[in-house]
Design brief:
A hairpin with a 1-residue loop joins strand 7 and strand 8. The protein is flat. It has a six-stranded mixed sheet with strand order 1-11-3-6-2-4. Strands 5, 7, 8, 9 and 10 form a five-stranded mixed sheet that branches. It is built from 23 helices and 13 strands. The protein is of the alpha+beta class and 567 residues long.
Length: 567
């Protein structure tokens, strides 16, 4: 195996001209901190690893989709653009291992990085020429050099700063020319800072234009299956690479008429845009592909994504998308969102049932039989989630449910009773389960789900709801409680209860912002009787803070009755 040394400037010159990405590659995932550390390693003469290239002969370049590297990263839309191979009459090189590093070099030297931190920021990579290199032996992760992604080169803070756009170094073939370019800006600086800046410019030029920073090995086989194996071997040990990326790589290699990478990424994005938003990943969609295609094993393994299985999935792709889209639209109507869909796998049997029904507008249907099925689906999804039916051996569970649903048809009622029996759960909450639910805490895993169940008649469409402390959280500080003259037992009682379910409600975004930290006794006066009924606010003679214990116990009783009515 022959490794060929390479310089950063060589890589940058070839990217998106001679070097591209195969469709089997995952997307760029590095943050600005990882890019800064990469450049810091290059400046400090640390190894940055080897690269694995694949030489794709010109005659085969139209056989598979080829993508460009991202030059300007945008946190809102981070997908790689499809490369235009029209008119290219030469062999091209595709990167099998090293995409994150090469993309980072391109962004740092020729591009930009847009990300959200309180607001959207369009940044470029700079080097502070006035910061002496200071390695931290106690923390090797700390940067030795002053690299930073910034919106501009304007100084900030009190430390000496002269921010140099790192990409500017590409404009000069000679390091002395790069220094001369900065001469006027350095002229007024003290000698020690001027010398530091010139040393850093010279070192940066040397590391980008002269130093052999790494090596690459070139795979020349034109057997795509072999190349896929090489890719999997090269990437499966890397922790940041998700298993779904390897499976997507296999699908991309073996779909015949569709671009699997493009299809699955775009469809996942479309699912997540439904209603107020979800957080489904590629792994969920790939799992659904196996589950919703007849006679395929559902285990999430590379071997199950064989060529013949992938052909079946490709043929079924339109039905898979329709079933999943209808399912997510349906649960969005029920009030489920990214915060309370805590067991996404529970959606797969629902999607399979809807696929068998073949009604793409089921979620909007008001027919009697459809309305009954919708009610049964909502209840089943709630109980299977609350009872953690999809924890543990989820593949075994999903297989049993798929077997029950295989003969469903356009007029089949939702078989809730059979599904409950298969899951070995009851369609009701026991006293013990309700007692456990009452211990759910603010922003806990199941808390938002349970709170949503307390509002059976609410219109959830396209509204954002926040978990809110009824008696404001800011009041429950030990020093404030003691200042009120409370005995230690009462202080501990308040502290133990304020973060639990009985002191929580769901408010719209505007309601929550208007309420803020207003004392409850004042804020509740601005709400009418229907609001109090909707939020299970108990009738009391006073809602002063001293009455919190009484309020808590009465509202807890109301919640218990509401949960008992779910059956």
């Amino acid at each position: 195996m022959e490794y060929i040394p390479v310089r950063v400037s060589d890589i940058i010159r070839q990217v998106n001209r001679d070097i591209y990405l195969p469709a089997i590659q995952r997307e760029f995932v590095w943050g600005t901190d990882r890019i800064e550390r990469l450049f810091d390693s290059i400046m400090a003469d640390f190894p940055i690893g080897s690269f694995l290239y694949w030489k794709l002969e010109q005659k085969n370049k139209d056989e598979w989709p080829i993508y460009e590297f991202i030059r300007d990263f945008d946190g809102e839309s981070s997908h790689n653009p499809l490369a235009n191979m029209a008119g290219i009459t030469r062999d091209v090189t595709l990167v099998l291992d090293g995409q994150q590093r090469i993309t980072s070099l391109l962004i740092g030297l020729k591009g930009s990085y847009r990300y959200f931190y309180y607001r959207w920021r369009q940044t470029s990579l700079y080097l502070n020429l006035l910061k002496p290199p200071t390695p931290n032996e106690d923390n090797p992760e700390e940067l030795t050099y002053g690299f930073a992604f910034r919106e501009s080169g304007d100084p900030s803070g009190k430390a000496p700063q002269l921010w140099y756009p790192v990409g500017r170094i590409l404009d000069f073939e000679d390091a002395e020319d790069a220094k001369a370019d900065m001469k006027s800006k350095l002229a007024e600086l003290p000698e020690d800072l001027r010398d530091n800046a010139n040393r850093l410019i010279g070192r940066l030029h040397n590391r980008i234009h002269t130093t052999l920073v790494g090596n690459y090995y070139q795979e020349k086989s034109q057997d795509y299956d072999k190349v896929l194996q090489v890719f999997v071997r090269a990437n499966s040990a890397g922790q940041p690479l998700e298993y779904s990326d390897l499976l997507l790589a296999t699908a991309t290699a073996k779909w015949e008429t569709l671009d699997a990478r493009k299809e699955i990424h775009e469809f996942t994005d479309s699912l997540n845009d439904i209603g107020t938003g979800y957080g489904f990943g590629k792994d969920f969609v790939l799992k659904a592909c196996l589950y919703l295609t007849e006679d395929l094993p559902i285990q999430y393994r590379v071997k199950n994504f064989s060529r013949s299985n992938l052909r079946k999935i490709e043929e079924n792709w339109g039905d898979i998308k329709e079933a999943l889209t209808t399912t997510v639209r349906l649960i969005s109507r029920f009030g489920f969102n990214s915060k309370n869909v805590v067991a996404p796998l529970a959606l797969l049997p629902i999607a399979l049932y809807l696929l068998k029904r073949g009604n793409r507008t089921f979620d909007m249907s008001s027919k009697v039989e459809d309305a009954e099925a919708q009610i049964a689906i909502r209840q089943w999804f709630i109980f299977s989630t609350l009872k953690n039916a999809f924890g543990g051996s989820s593949d075994t569970t999903l297989n049993r449910l798929r077997e029950l649903l295989k003969d469903a048809g356009p007029d089949t009622p939702f078989p809730a009773d059979d599904l409950y029996k298969s899951l070995e759960i009851e369609p009701r909450l026991t006293d013990a389960e309700i007692e456990r639910i009452l211990t759910y805490r603010y922003q806990g895993r199941y808390t938002n789900l349970v709170l949503s169940l307390l509002y059976p008649d609410r219109d959830w469409k396209d509204a954002v709801f926040h978990e809110d402390h009824i008696f404001p959280q800011s009041e429950f500080q030990i020093r404030l409680l003691k200042r009120r003259g409370y005995a230690e037992s009462k202080v501990q009682s308040y502290i133990a209860k304020y973060n639990l379910l009985a002191n929580l409600q769901l408010l719209t975004e505007s309601e929550n912002l208007s309420k803020n930290a207003t004392p409850f006794e004042e804020w509740i006066k601005t709400r009418d009787a229907s609001f109090r009924r909707r939020h299970l606010i108990p009738e009391m003679t006073s809602y002063v803070f001293d009455a919190f214990d009484e309020f808590y116990e009465k509202r807890k009783d109301s919640i218990v009755k509401a949960l008992q009515r779910l059956t």
